[in-house]
Description:
- There is one protein chain.
- The protein has two domains: 3-116 and 267-275, Quinolinate phosphoribosyl transferase, N-terminal domain (Aldehyde Oxidoreductase, domain 3, Alpha-Beta Complex), CATH 3.90.1170; 118-264, TIM Barrel.
- 40% of the residues lie in helices and 19% in strands.
- The chain has eleven helices and twelve strands.
- The strands form three sheets. Strands 6-11-10-9-8-7 form a six-stranded parallel beta sheet. A four-stranded antiparallel beta sheet has the order 3-5-1-12, covered by helices on one side. It has a two-stranded antiparallel sheet with strand order 2-4.
- Helix 7 (174-182) packs parallel to helix 8 (198-207).
- The longest helix has 30 residues, at 89-118.
Amino acid sequence: MNVIKLKAMLTSFFNEDIGDGDLSSETIFSAQEQGSFTFYAKEDGIFCGAQIIEIGFSILDSTLKVSVLKQDGEHISKGDQLAIIEGSLRSLLTGERVILNLVQRMSGIATKANKAVARTTGTNAHICDTRKTMPGLRMLDKYAVRTGGAYNHRSGLYDAIMLKDNHIAFAGSITKAVESARSKIGHTVKIEVEIETKEELMEAIDAGADIIMFDNRTPSEIRDWLPLVPPHIATEASGNITLDNLREYAESGVEWISLGALTHSVSAFDISALVGPKGVIVHGTH
Length: 286
């Protein structure tokens, strides 16, 4: 991840939550009172968010001692300690919610991505995400997908061309859309075309698409159409694909399977903060 961007994001998130000050913590505890938090897992999955914990608490208070006990991508079990943070009670309490929110979301995404990848074992399919990320959190969402063992699709509208049904409708045809795009881009930019029928598939091939997406097609349809696609054109399946039917798509022979569900409807991973007694620092061990 871009650490400079991450620091700016965290600063913005803290400013949103803290405003002019943490009334709860500042009215109850003095600046000198010390304690500790232990973050621990309440379910099994994949950990993601070490930098969020390390950098987040350091932005709030450089005197805090932060020990992250797990690495991003590591399998964790219910009851595992994930991190121990020691120091000012005010700083611990002020940073807890924002940091936990992000780590829980990222670990949830990484866990779901890992489950999706596991369903492709023994096939040539690769799992990737989509642009259906939480606005403002795309860098973190896509990092979490990679942490879970899956891949990233384009990062935004700026790094690849993807011609969907509305682009094609406005352009008049797949051929016109591809020709227009190809005439204006350099050699490093790829063009992906979304198709829904066999006729559209053949037109996309003839137009010179780099990637063909089978949109809302069944595994059977994809299996039947794949032999028509030249080897130099990458293939992708997308639309109405879930963990339940993912294996069928992976076995169709398609190269890439994009899942919006990795990021648009993820469940937060269950993590809690166990509080050490006020004034007592509980040192953790790795």
